[in-house]
Amino acid sequence: MAISEGLAMDGGAMFDGGDYASNTVTAVAQAQTISADEIALYDRQIRLWGVKAQEKLRTAHVLIITMKALANEIAKNLVLAGVGAVTVVDHELVTEEDLCSQFLVAEDDVGMNRAEAAKSRLQKLNPRVQLHTNTTDIRTQPSSFFSPFDIIIATHLDLHTLIGINASARASNRAFYAAEAHGFYGYMFSDLIRHEYVIERERSNVATKVGHQETPTRSIIDVSTKREANNKTVIELVTKQELYTPLMLAHTAPLPKELVGSRRRAKQISPLLSCFKALWDWQQRPHSFRLLPAVSDFIDVQSFTRIAVEAHKELGLPPETLTSQFLGNFLQNLGSELSPATAFLGGQLAQDVINVLGQREQPVQNFLCFDGLESKGVVYALHPRKEGEEE
Fold first, then answer.
1. 3-state DSSP assignment of residue 265
2. Per-residue pLDDT tens for 218-269?
3. Cα–Cα distance between 254 and 252 in angstroms, integer?
4. In the prediction, which pLDDT does 1 show?
5. What DSSP line would sit under 266-293, residue for residue?
6. How far apart are CA 81 and CA 351, in angstroms?
7. pTM of the model
8. DSSP code string of 15-77
């Protein structure tokens, strides 16, 4: 499955295992709180992102909201990676439908609270991780509820609730993710507010300039170097900063001019983006008494189609790319869960969380659309244009 980006993304540095042993010894000496047992347990991933990143991971507390199939995958990946603590919030009960795609619940759990039912199987994946559950409706929680967490991941919630949680996360300076999966389709959104991370790469002949603005949201704020043990290769450590937009502004933001300014590039943009924006708009309409339009209801289909066409037009996309067949497929997938799609999307989100906590690699900026039928995930940067900037 391919992941591409609407705007260019930096490539990660390749891992060189030659100096792993010596680097690990040094890092362990600096990170006194991580044990030798943990070094052995997480050996493979430490080889990828280092002891310091693992130390940051093991002290992090992640909040996951709504324990459906997508959250199952996110929680599984974070627990196996060795995150310090996970709190799961879900007030719903396990249903027979949940058994079709969720591997953390079983037939005996039907009728139990979803968070409580998933806890024991999740704990077995990694007994070192602290697991907590909360069975209240997240919509009843005050803004202060979110401040103890390092990362907040909200899945399968309506736009109004997501915007409120995002605002609470920002008030506490906490990273926020929103995600949803419907059959073959899904999305993830990230608001990291202001995030710094380090890219390691072999130094080139062209000097890297501090202060260089790579994109409207990404700038280089520091550059340093180190020499590998062979004393020949010089590695450049480039610290970058990404600025993010809250969901309240991002959900109505236009696509970058670089994409819609070219008809050829605009035709390559998936109509899935328009459909998800339309779904958010649907949830805000006064007539909407349910979160998802029913494919069996002619009025729902007609209304959603009209909203999707409007969203597609507002994004500046060619009308012929939003076909009736695609709209039909999207509507038929709403409300369903498919394990292959949730596995991919949940894996992507969990990996981004790990990168963010370790402050390594380029994070998602800021909206990823996943189309399982095309086996493709595309990242779009959705930010409001600055005052005076051309539409």
1. helix
2. 999 999 988 877 667 888 899 999 999 999 999 999 999 888 888 899 999 9
3. 7
4. 52
5. HHHS-THHHHHHHHHHHHHSTT--SSS-
6. 9
7. 0.86
8. P-GGGHHHHHHHHHHH-TTS-HHHHHHTHHHHHHHHHHHHHHHHT-EEEEE--SHHHHHHHHH
